[in-house]
Specification:
Elements lengths: L2 H7 L1 H6 L7 E6 L1 E6 L1 H12 L6 E10 L4 E10 L1 E13 L13 H16 L4 H4 L6 H10 L1 H5 L8 H16 L3 H7 L2 H12 L3 H17 L8
Antiparallel strand pairs: 1-2, 3-4, 4-5
Helix pairs in contact: 3-11, 8-11, 10-11
Amino acid sequence: MDKPIIRKNRELWDTVSTTNPKYTKKVKLGREFTAIDPYSQILEATNAFGPVGQGWGWEVSRVEYTPNDQLGILVKVWHGDRSQTYEQWGQAGLFRDKNKSSPDTDCFKKATTDGITKCLSYLGFNADVFLGKFDDNKYVQEMRDEYATENSKQNPAKLSSERSGMLSTYIRSFEACTEQSHIEKLIDDKFKKFIGDLREENYLNQAAELENAYNLAIGRTTKTNGEK
């Protein structure tokens, strides 16, 4: 295949394939692996395609329960054109403990997030993690150095208790939205000033967290996500 064609085909992959170590952590569940903050993936997909529900989104195609108390959710992701879709299974346990005494009430959310993560990986998002590059300490340090300038822009100071409370309230409110009219009521002048002030004062992580909560609410309440 001609190199110009390869370069064109890999434009998106090469743009989104590297991962900021700030949004990763090592997890041990039988084996050690690198976990990626799912909100950072939603943010990167939004940067690439636009807001959830407009530039990209997902829907649940199928739900299954396995004999070993696992929940499987088949997630269909689209981007650009809603006809451009692809699917992957997400999985999560039904219980928090081995004795099955504590049901995991977040299992549907976890399985859906897992499916979205796998689908995005097919487009190249966080490819360096999935290719095992984060097992190489030298590579991780290179990524830390590469993202150092970006990370340093974040205001190191903690939010005031008042602002922290407002942030939590907005996020919970977006998570509770079941209709787009509910979202529209939240996006008032007070909200716009709040998120604008966060950005202006370089509370970039908090602003991104709030924006992601908004995008997820939009995606959840669109017709592609089950709105009647």
